[in-house]
Structure formats: structure tokens, C-alpha cells
């Protein structure tokens, strides 16, 4: 199965009908040449409108954290497969969580298309809960701080959203100590 076939399957999935009827395309980036996989939560409203993963302030910060340029980020070397391929809508305190069936049913099909993935960057709680199944620390901060325990397969990081400025202010070690390791890891893989 290739990316186009997955898109067609997503568009005809009854659970995605409201998106398909509005002409909203699933948002992800995947191909057989990918070496680094990014698994985030779900596209925001702005990303849904552009159809380009991380095409927002979060993406600008993530690109900087990875130590690459925008051209590399949107190249065949990088795959972006969120926990939901559609914007889930607004909740009381932010966006609604990604729908669970997307990762369960569609991620395995997409991951099989990318045999050369050498690092999976897990962004935020939803991807960590799913992919680190029972191996997370007691909270997201401790999991991110213990990132070395998950290497070389996974690299858990906080979401690069501008809304996380309080977390970043309380945890300066992330930018000082973790981001340089993430940059070196990504650059070594892509070299």
C-alpha cells in the first residue's frame, strides 16, 4: 500500500465522512525514503486549512529544534504521521484529543511503507502513551527528561506549541540539554 492508497481509504472511511464531505484532506507526510518519523497529535485548524503538516508556529519551532531547514523538513527524508490525520475540533481547554482508531488502524499500514526509519520523534502525551506503552515515566516532563532511555528508536519531546511557553520557562534544561542532542541525532541520521 502506498500513501495515495491510504489517503483514498481514509477518505472513504465512514468515520471521516464529515471531513470528506467538506473537502478536507487527511494531513500526513510519508514515503519509502523516510529516515526520521515524527508522530505528533493532530493537525490544528491552520494546518487543516493548508493541508501541510506543521505549517504553523509549532512547525517553525520543531524545525529549529531538529536543527534542519524547511526544505529538509518537507523532503522525502522526513515522515510526519500524527495520531489523527484530521483536526479533531475545539474542546474546553484546547483542541479535542485525536481519535484513537487512526493510530490503531492506519499507522501500521503507513509504517510498513517506510522500512528505513531510524528515529521516531514522539511529540506530546498522546504519541508517548501509544508508542511507549507502559514505559513512560510518571508524567510527560519526566519522560522527556529520560529521553536517553528510549533511544535509539524513540525520542520523546514536548509539543513545540507556542502555548507551551510556561512549560518551557519552567524547564530550561530542555532547550539547553535535550534540543542539542535531538539536533545531533537527526543530523547524523540524515548525513
Short note summarizing the structure:
This protein has 191 residues and is α/β, with parallel strands linked by helices.
What is this structure's SSE topology?
Layout: H1 3-12, H2 17-21, E1 36-39, H3 45-50, H4 57-66, H5 70-73, E2 78-80, E3 90-91, E4 94-95, H6 100-112, E5 119-123, H7 124-131, H8 140-145, E6 154-157, H9 165-170, H10 173-190
Parallel strand pairs: 1-2, 1-5, 5-6
Antiparallel strand pairs: 3-4
Index terms:
191 residues; alpha/beta; Uracil-DNA Glycosylase, subunit E; 4-stranded parallel sheet; two-stranded antiparallel ribbon; 6 strands
CATH architecture: 3-Layer(aba) Sandwich
Within the CATH hierarchy, at the fold level, what is the topology? Uracil-DNA Glycosylase, subunit E
Portion in beta strands: 5-15%
Count of discrete alpha- or pi-helical segments spanning 4 or more residues:
10
Instruction: Sketch the major β-sheet.
Output: 4 strands, parallel
Structural class: alpha/beta
Shape: globular
Structure description:
The protein is of the alpha/beta class. It has a single domain (3-190), classed as Uracil-DNA glycosylase-like domain (Uracil-DNA Glycosylase, subunit E). Helix content is 45%, strand content 10%. It contains ten helices and six strands, in the order H-H-E-H-H-H-E-E-E-H-E-H-H-E-H-H. It has helices at 3-12, 17-21, 45-50, 57-66, 70-73, 100-112, 124-131, 140-145, 165-170, 173-190; strands at residues 36-39, 78-80, 90-91, 94-95, 119-123, 154-157. A four-stranded parallel sheet has the order 2-1-5-6. It is globular, with a radius of gyration of 16 Å.
Amino acid at each position: 500500500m502506498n500513501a495515495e492508497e491510504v489517503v483514498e481509504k481514509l477518505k472513504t472511511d465512514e468515520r471521516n465522512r464529515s471531513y470528506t464531505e467538506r473537502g478536507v484532506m487527511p494531513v500526513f507526510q510519508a514515503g519509502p525514503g523516510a529516515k526520521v518519523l515524527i508522530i505528533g497529535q493532530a493537525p490544528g485548524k491552520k494546518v487543516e486549512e493548508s493541508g501541510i503538516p506543521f505549517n504553523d508556529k509549532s512547525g517553525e519551532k520543531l524545525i529549529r529544534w531538529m536543527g534542519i531547514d524547511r526544505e529538509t523538513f518537507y523532503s522525502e527524508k522526513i515522515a510526519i504521521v500524527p495520531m489523527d490525520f484530521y483536526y479533531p475540533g475545539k474542546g474546553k481547554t484546547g483542541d479535542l484529543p485525536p481519535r484513537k482508531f487512526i493510530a490503531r488502524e492506519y499507522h501500521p499500514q503507513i509504517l510498513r511503507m517506510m522500512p528505513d526509519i531510524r528515529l521516531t520523534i514522539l511529540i506530546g502525551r498522546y504519541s508517548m502513551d501509544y508508542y511507549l506503552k507502559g514505559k513512560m515515566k510518571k508524567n510527560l516532563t519526566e519522560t522527556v527528561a529520560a529521553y536517553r532511555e528510549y533511544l535509539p528508536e524513540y525520542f520523546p519531546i514536548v509539543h513545540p506549541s507556542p502555548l507551551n511557553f510556561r512549560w518551557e520557562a519552567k524547564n530550561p534544561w530542555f532547550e539547553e540539554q535535550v534540543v542539542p542532542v535531538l539536533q545531533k541525532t537527526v543530523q547524523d541520521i540524515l548525513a
